[in-house]
Amino acid sequence: EIIIDRIDFSMIRKFPYATVEFSNVLIKSRAGLSYSGPAPAGKDTLMSASKIYFQFGLLGLIHNEFQLKKIHMTDGKINVFTDPSGRNNYSIWKTTDKEKEGEGYTFDFNNVIFSGFDLHYINLKNPAFVHSFIDKMVFNGSVSGENGRYAVKSELFFYEAGRNESYRIKNIPVYFDFKASSEKDRVTIRQGGI
Hints:
Blueprint: E1 2-10, E2 17-28, E3 45-57, H1 58-62, E4 68-82, H2 97-100, E5 106-123, E6 128-144, E7 147-163, E8 167-183, E9 186-193
Parallel strand pairs: 4-5
Antiparallel strand pairs: 1-2, 2-3, 3-4, 5-6, 6-7, 7-8, 8-9
């Protein structure tokens, strides 16, 4: 379920982009998860944001071309959860007949920006957790079926992170910039720095 308080359109606010602005957005978690053990805070919320801006080039709009130039999400929370059986709250896309027939899809994204986000990641199947604050994170990339290529830059602060009591990090500012690719369940970092 997606709840949006208000939607506005402007050709001036984020010039030179035409902007569709969503205010007070809430995306609920997928239903049917098992919250055994300590329940994460906000377990029914996948993401919330004060504002989400979808920005389009003005010249393209004049020619009826709707090419998304930038997505900017501000002041929110992200809760990513995987229960003990491996079900997660972020697989929200419905399958289509095309996918069942083996026809793939390609999704390109550029300038997807998160700023001012609190992130909680809890995995109860492969016990791990992260609680961090994302000052700014920029994604670029392409996903096609189970494969993808990505570039990510981020400035964040880890309040706490760890895995199955074997290690923990606390109160560490982190900057990273890397390029990666994915194939099925495997992610390979090709170049980058932390």
